[in-house]
Q: What sequence folds into this?
């Protein structure tokens, strides 16, 4: 009788661990489904010079420089506003913007503007455009 009790107890423990394992796998799967599993960005990437010129010349577009303050003060695209992505108040600053307007974000290399574009998209902004051209490249392109 004791041996049978021990076997039942072992089976119950095994079943318990199997259930925990299956539930863990389900949770991991569900969490991964929430992320952008397609590998695509949820904002428009500007990687062609012609597209960049068109969007910069569009008066309805709000241009945002997401670089550090010192970089912005050394030079920026005409009419660009400065919202530093690495600043602790970035989310607060973008929350004051109209989510239905069209935005172009740029930085020095495209890395920070990609981060800012993703944050803005996840915050509900409808039309976010990220320039893969850095500030220096943009200046060369728009001065052509």
A:
């Amino acid at each position: 009788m004791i041996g049978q009790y021990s076997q039942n107890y072992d089976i119950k423990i095994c079943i318990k661990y199997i259930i925990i394992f299956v539930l863990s796998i389900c949770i991991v799967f569900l969490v991964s489904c929430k992320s952008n599993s397609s590998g695509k960005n949820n904002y428009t990437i500007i990687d062609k010079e012609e597209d960049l010129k068109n969007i910069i010349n569009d008066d309805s577009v709000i241009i945002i420089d997401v670089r550090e303050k010192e970089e912005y003060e050394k030079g920026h695209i005409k009419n660009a506003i400065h919202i530093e992505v690495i600043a602790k108040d970035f989310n607060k600053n973008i929350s004051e913007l109209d989510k239905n307007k069209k935005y172009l974000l740029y930085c020095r290399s495209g890395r920070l503007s990609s981060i800012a574009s993703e944050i803005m998209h996840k915050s509900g902004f409808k039309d976010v455009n990220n320039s893969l051209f850095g500030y220096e490249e943009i200046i060369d392109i728009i001065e052509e």
Remarks:
- Residues 53 and 144 are 10 Å apart (CA to CA).
